[in-house]
Amino acid sequence: MFERILIANRGEIALRVIRTAREMGIECVAVYSDVDATAMHTRMAHSAVALSGSTPQETYLNMDKILDAALATGAQAIHPGYGFLSENAEFARRVMAAGLVWIGPPPGAITTMGDKIESRRAMAKAGVPCVPGLQDPVDDFQAALTAAETIGYPIAIKAAAGGGGKGIRIVRQASEMESAFRTASGEAKSSFGDGRVYLERYLDHPRHIEIQVLFDQHGHGVHLFERECSIQRRHQKLVEEAPSPVIDPATREAMGQVALQAAAHVNYEGAGTVEFLWSNGEFFFLEMNTRLQVEHPVTEMITGVDLVRQQILVAAGMPLEITQEDLVIRGHSIEVRINAEDPSAGYLPSTGVLHNLRMSGGPWVRLDTGMFRHMEVGLTYDPMLGKLIVWGPNRTAAIERMKRAIAEMNVGGVRTSMPAALMVLEHERFVAGDFDTHFLESLEIRPPEQYLRLIVAAAALYRHGLVERSAMDPLASERRGWRERGRREYSAYARRQLERGESQ
Amino acid sequence: MKLFVQVDGREFEVELSHVAGKRVMLIDGEPMEVDYRAADALGQVILMHAGKSYGISIEGTTHQVHATLAGHAYALHMEDERERAASLAAKAALGGGGPLEAVMPGIVVEVLVQEGQQVEAGQPILILEAMKMQNEILAVAPAVVASVHVKAGDTVPAGAVLVVLRGLES
């Protein structure tokens, strides 16, 4: 087993890896950018190496600096986390060429699965179901009608040169084809200067469901059931759960087998996720993520398997500790992402300093986060600040537990996505399990009316307190600082109060 | 003095006074009995009302406050009578113009106007890059650029004043 590994990442995922590595008796080397000099992962690792600079290109994406850090500290392996260099085949090759172990899949698997077209071709060859359709454009509506028979209705006519929803027409029966073909082709021509269109099966109420797989270097693989990730916006997931409320045991087994088949086809090693679109009982391959995923904890919660531990064991060449027969689903788990964004204002990114943090706790609540008091949230890195994860004996209990955990949490200083997640959890359609990938987009995020008067009273008294304090200490009320900086969301005054509070 | 509190598209009038050493609060003319205690200097507050206790997180300034209660987020804007009169006077002086603020944090890519320049409705004032997208910030009405507060390359937080326009309508 490794004595020392380097974690080429930051934030909650770096911390997540450090925690398991510590439990395995492995020393951790962290790397950090200038702004992360006081970050949690920098503090919690056994040692930390500065990657001078602050942009991702200068730091967590800089292969030379990371490899130098690993070699200088005597790390034997590199864990890439997710994002940054985790799906970079060139980096994986360079890690291995430097005589280090890459805690991830073989570079060839990363390359094949990283290319949308190539991966679908490979999967079709492996017998994995993909969304039925034609790669080539159709010439006229007669040809479209013939092709539609093999694809099956409903059909989506899409612009070959397209994107952004332009030139898309849904055809539910053959009689609609002629006019839909004409308008789609016309719209494609006027939008993109290219009237060519192709056909694909249209998926009604699609759900994003993915299967976790784990393979060792000896050809042994298991799947760890599904995760339901349909609560998303612009492909950014917000609420994830396991198991999915719509997947029955037979479908679960079928999807698991297909996922194993897909991974085996590219000689996969380590932890990976095969993503599917599910619609009315049918499922189709979407893509494979060749890394640990953000939402991996819900799988850990229902299976009791530490996925990072398995990744490290596999990378060290050891056979998997578990067989498919060992794996059973226990209870239900939900994860909510804490993103620095304002869901009541179109999910715009939010920046600030986290000076008022209150964390959730209690039974079966897990908080994976790199947040700390006084942390500055800027625009340099991903807006995800952490994840709240709960477990319950069943879905209802897990939903109630998550609502309780969100109510306990406060991330003061920035707006977060949590109120949106809370509205999802309180929504009757979510509770009934009746939702698709468009559901979150349809929600208007507003606070409930019942507490408005209380909040107004609290705000008025808060202001009263600020005014009273500034009357006693005229210097503290000086607002020049924040006015000049363009009315930042926290005042210089509040910060001075804070510093004063700290030094007392 | 009256305090106007705006939240979620609504406005409340709050009156705070002391009667015989006791604090009395009226919201829209109706008495609101609360016991307010700050648990720390960072914004953790306990509010007692009608026999119930509410843990509220609150942070901000005398004018812009953000509060969280039971997982729900509230953005509040406050001004008292004097401040409201001043801001109305300022608005009148600007004649339909006013400060153009960044709605999201970003980086100023290019400033397309200069002080004193006249702009038409719909004319781009500057380009702001946020969320990896370049957004043109447009004038909504004909105006004169009263002042420019940023330059290309500046990183601006949400709410930052970018330029101030003086309207031509009045």
In short:
In chain A, 36% of the residues lie in helices and 23% in strands. Chain A is built from 17 helices and 22 strands.
Please outline the helices and strands.
The complex is a heterodimer of chains A (504) and B (170).
Chain A: E1 4-7, H1 11-23, E2 27-32, H2 40-44, E3 47-50, H3 63-73, E4 77-79, H4 89-97, E5 101-102, H5 107-114, H6 116-125, H7 141-151, E6 155-159, E7 169-171, H8 177-192, E8 197-201, E9 207-215, E10 221-233, E11 236-242, H9 249-265, E12 270-279, E13 282-289, H10 296-303, H11 307-315, E14 332-339, E15 341-342, E16 348-349, E17 352-354, E18 356-358, E19 365-369, E20 375-377, E21 384-392, H12 395-408, E22 410-412, H13 418-426, H14 428-431, H15 452-472, H16 480-484, H17 492-503
Parallel strand pairs in A: 1-2, 1-4, 2-3, 4-5
Antiparallel strand pairs in A: 6-7, 6-8, 9-10, 9-12, 10-11, 11-14, 12-13, 14-21, 15-16, 17-20, 18-22, 19-21
Helix pairs in contact in A: 4-5, 7-8, 12-13
Chain B: E1 2-7, E2 10-19, E3 22-27, E4 30-31, E5 35-38, E6 44-49, E7 52-60, E8 64-69, E9 72-80, H1 81-94, E10 98-101, E11 106-111, E12 118-119, E13 124-130, E14 133-138, E15 143-148, E16 155-156, E17 161-167
Antiparallel strand pairs in B: 1-2, 1-9, 2-3, 3-4, 5-6, 6-7, 7-8, 8-9, 10-17, 11-13, 11-16, 12-15, 13-14, 15-17
Give an overview of the whole structure.
The complex is a heterodimer of chains A (504) and B (170). Chain A has helices at 11-23, 40-44, 63-73, 89-97, 107-114, 116-125, 141-151, 177-192, 249-265, 296-303, 307-315, 395-408, 418-426, 428-431, 452-472, 480-484, 492-503; strands spanning 4-7, 27-32, 47-50, 77-79, 101-102, 155-159, 169-171, 197-201, 207-215, 221-233, 236-242, 270-279, 282-289, 332-339, 341-342, 348-349, 352-354, 356-358, 365-369, 375-377, 384-392, 410-412. Chain A is an alpha+beta fold and 504 residues long. Chain A has four domains: 4-103, 3-Layer(aba) Sandwich (Rossmann fold), CATH 3.40.50; 141-201, ATP-grasp fold, A domain (Dna Ligase, domain 1), CATH 3.30.1490; 207-442, ATP-grasp fold, B domain (D-amino Acid Aminotransferase, Chain A, domain 1); 453-503, no CATH class. An eight-stranded antiparallel beta sheet of chain A has the order 13-12-9-10-11-14-21-19, with helices on both faces. A five-stranded parallel beta sheet of chain A has the order 3-2-1-4-5, sandwiched between helices. Chain A is globular and about 80 Å long. Chain A starts with a strand and ends with a helix. Chain B has 170 residues and is mainly beta. Chain B has two domains: 2-82, Glycoprotein, Type 4 Pilin, CATH 3.30.700.30; 95-167, RNA polymerase II/Efflux pump adaptor protein, barrel-sandwich hybrid domain (OB fold (Dihydrolipoamide Acetyltransferase, E2P)). In chain B, 8% of the residues lie in helices and 58% in strands. Chain B has one helix and 17 strands. Chain B has one helix at residues 81-94, and strands spanning 2-7, 10-19, 22-27, 30-31, 35-38, 44-49, 52-60, 64-69, 72-80, 98-101, 106-111, 118-119, 124-130, 133-138, 143-148, 155-156, 161-167. The model of chain B has no long low-confidence stretch (mean pLDDT 88). Chains A and B meet through strand 16, helix 12, helix 13, helix 15 and helix 17 of A and strand 1, strand 2, strand 6, strand 7 and strand 8 of B.
